[in-house]
Amino acid sequence: MRVFDTTLRDGDQMPGVELDFYDKIEILRALDELGVDIIEAGFPASSDIDRKAVRAAVKETSRAKIAALARAHPRDVDEAAAAEAHIIHVFIATSDVHMKYKLRMTRSQVIERAVEAVERARSYGATVLFSAEDATRSDPGFLVKIYRRVVEAGAGYINIPDTVGTATPWYMEWLVSLIRRSLPSWVWIDVHCHDDFGMATANTLAGVRAGADGVQVTVNGFGERAGNAALEEVVAALHYLMGRTTSIRMELLTPISRLVASKFGVETPPNKAIVGRNAFAHEAGIHVHGILKNPATYEPLPPESVGNRRRIVLGRHSGRAAVEWALKNIGVDPEPDLVKYILDKLKEYAPRMKKVSEDIIVKWINEYTRQERVKTPYP
């Protein structure tokens, strides 16, 4: 499966986020090391930073191809070409609501503009990727028509965006299947899903099931509004749930998640799938007992395989197995009376403390030890 990362373009459009040139280059290098196939490094016509970032990206990456975004407008296409992008990503809206209120163009005018932009981009010798913005709210017949026309004009690579996240997995599967059947088999097809209804990952996987051979994603799902399909979720699901392979180095998923979160100034939620601090954390007694016997009982994949780690958390839901593990972890013999003492303390204090640290456990061990000495004084 082809992985197209747009963290530096769509992710960078996240409200309140401003990446400078050096932030972009650091993230770019990490994405290249991760194994991403295509990196959309920016929108050259939108800013000087993006223009410089795309130009630098071409020289900085060792394996990834660099894409630059361009509206179906001559100046945008020329700017992307001037930045020397390997792939010029041309887009224009195709839904009736966008054409009427944003573009103020007819369907025939939109097709004409798209074809002209694709031909112009192709004249520079670049690979041309064409996106029909708001594809999932577009008339399917018109969508097929415009994709066919841009392919005839020289675009060998198309993208199907769920721009405002309104698709359902079953509709995404139907639509991608329709477009796949309607185009030559050699045309590359990506899906690009937004998370407005929390279905970006599911919709992306549905698109793959229907015949898409590429996924467009961002690290941590960062992006406009509710964000995009998250790279780490999509790639892990492709590998572990769908039996698909990618060029991604899975063990680097958590490190790059933390790097991007730091550069964006956005803290990753602890319960974030795959890369969150709690993604492989266990507190409930039944779960911990199972995990300590065999991690597969409550973990869908090994945390180390995605660069994360297992955490056994102590709290009021903990059982004997968790306490015994915690004591062994700090080099203390988990004798039964001590385990019971710690468990009783957890039930009493954990709800108020919220977080039971190792220091608190050591404090309770010392309290228990002092009490035992009082009960059995030296002769």
Automatic annotation (TrEMBL):
Keywords: Amino-acid biosynthesis, Branched-chain amino acid biosynthesis, Leucine biosynthesis, Transferase. Its EC number is 2.3.3.13. Its cofactor is a divalent metal cation. Residues 1-254 form the Pyruvate carboxyltransferase domain. The lineage of its organism: Archaea, Thermoproteota, Thermoprotei, Desulfurococcales, Pyrodictiaceae. It comes from Pyrodictium delaneyi. GO terms for molecular function: 2-isopropylmalate synthase activity. Pathway: Amino-acid biosynthesis; L-leucine biosynthesis; L-leucine from 3-methyl-2-oxobutanoate: step 1/4. One of its GO terms (biological process) is L-leucine biosynthetic process. It comes from the Archaea. Belongs to the alpha-IPM synthase/homocitrate synthase family. Homodimer. This is 2-isopropylmalate synthase. The keyword RNA-binding does not apply.
